[in-house]
Amino acid sequence: MVIRSAPRRAAAALGALLAGLLLVLAGCATGGGADGSSPGSPRATGAVTAPRPSGVPGRPRGMPVVAVGALPVEARDTLRLIDAGGPFPYAQDGTVFGNREGLLPRHARGYYHEYTVPTPGAPDRGARRLVTGGGHETYYTDDHYRSFKAVSR
Q: What segment(s) does the record annotate as region Disordered (predicted)?
């Protein structure tokens, strides 16, 4: 009985060895990330996005782009506060933005944070926000997350 099962075990071991070798070679051919992906590929970074144009990291294809100078003055003031690390005028500023609308590239919870852009004359925080991502991207919405513009910084 031992004699009969030895060829099967040898064949199984050889098959496993060849499969492993094939996986290693496939990883080397693509640039060789630890997970078989190329460094910087969406799979390696966890992002599920189209290729990014330079100057606006993380921008989904088709999303409008706005230059910082074209933002309302209140948004530019909020950007300065974000860059300085605060202090922020609203308790909600800096909290996690969940991206429930799905308009921004998908990332793990905690990747995005939101900040209020004051709206003159509004009785509350208003509808304007800046959302920042862990990859240093910035998005602006003036309609409370119904649409976004990527901020070119």
A: 33-61
